Amino acid sequence: MQAFANRRHRVQSAMNKNDVAIFISAPALIRSNDVHHRFRQDSDFYYLTGFDEEEAVLVLESDRSILYLRKRDPEKETWNGPMLGVDRAVATLAVDEARDINSFRTDLPAILKNRESLYYMFGRNREMDGFLLETSDRLLRRSRAGDFGPSRIIHSAVLLHEMRLIKDAGEIELMREAADITADAHLALFEKTRVSMFEFELESIIHEAFRRRNATEAYPSIVAAGKNACILHYIKNDEKIGQDQLILVDAGAEKQYMNGDVTRTYPSGKTYTSPQRDTYEVVLNAQLKAIDRTVPGISMEEVHNLTVRDLVSGLIDLKVLSGSVDENIESGSFRKFYMHRTGHWLGLDVHDVGSYNVDGMPRKMEPGMICTVEPGLYFPEDESVPQAFRGIGIRIEDDVLVTSGKPEVLTSRIPKSIKEIEAIRSGA
Ligand SMILES: [Mn+2]
């Protein structure tokens, strides 16, 4: 509760005295007909409140916080479980005031009256966007009466997303837990995978590992055997695992809104085949170097460019590419085999918020940032690659905390060396 209050105070201290910030909860989403998706709070709203109900609005003035939320409703509680309710919100969430959500619309003119700037995540909720704009406009037109409304609307990403980029102690603790649960799943897969199982059976092993520790999937798990690994967002997961195939698993747990994001690529049998091993070594070597480089002062862009160099050099060694490293980087020939970035921010969102550029320049890493490091190589089944490599897809992805010293790999419990993986696959 204190951590959420601290975050609100940080937002408030960045605001001018006459500003106001408004944050809206996520809408409930329909899956089909009258069945809803499991509710997930908007990440920004959760970051500032720790409150996981729908139909809520947080209003931050420079020295006061007001939470609008649903009144308790015994009938709704019978169907959907307990609601916090207005009466308990101040004590539970440490906001200064709690009010019925039904009064938000009537209160809004007073909230916006005589404000200079409004911080608001516009573009996410058309109806709310329109209502806020109209109300602001109406106040501005009343200037003859001496009133005014906010003439500047600032996207609150500029405040909040910069904060979210640097993780606080509580977030790092939860990220460690999400990483640990994610590790459970990958370790179970290394042990339980057998030829002739289906990809969906492996997916069920992932679900079991996550749910038994009260976590959920951070994103739909990718379980891709053989050439399916070359489909970057393969989530059908319905094919049978063959002999001497590689299995690429990209799966991460979400624990209390914090996310893991890990990929491992391991053999369906006991060992990697020779072309699989050669490719794996190129990717692993690039990944280990990229992790070592993830220190304060370097940008994600630089890490990516250096990783591309390592992968291209490996592709030349494998005789998939010919010519020099520079020529291949210049021509972009490698993009057929490496078409994604080397990493992204990670946190409350899997592809977490926070700008990758500052003042038009790639942003430098700072302690407290968390990112993925995930190089890969994907060889299509065509003439562009030597026969032996066709259909091989490999990605190795870990979650890395930038510290003032060496980077901390949050997901280091999951083996990735060929030796370690083959030992587990052989039942050693
Ligand atoms: Mn990722």
Description of the structure:
The protein has 428 residues and is of the alpha+beta class. It folds into 2 domains: 2-163, Creatinase/prolidase N-terminal domain (Creatine Amidinohydrolase, Chain A, domain 1), CATH 3.40.350; 166-425, Creatinase/methionine aminopeptidase superfamily (Creatine Amidinohydrolase), CATH 3.90.230.10. It contains 13 helices and 21 strands. It has a 6-stranded mixed beta sheet, with helices on both faces. A 3-stranded antiparallel beta sheet has the order 9-12-13. Strand 12 and strand 13 (258-259) form a beta hairpin. Helix 8 packs antiparallel against helix 9, helix 10 packs antiparallel against helix 11 and helix 11 packs across helix 12 (325-331). It is elongated and about 80 Å long. The protein starts with a helix and ends with a helix. The mean pLDDT is 96. Manganese (II) ion is lined by residues 261, 344, 372, 374, 397.
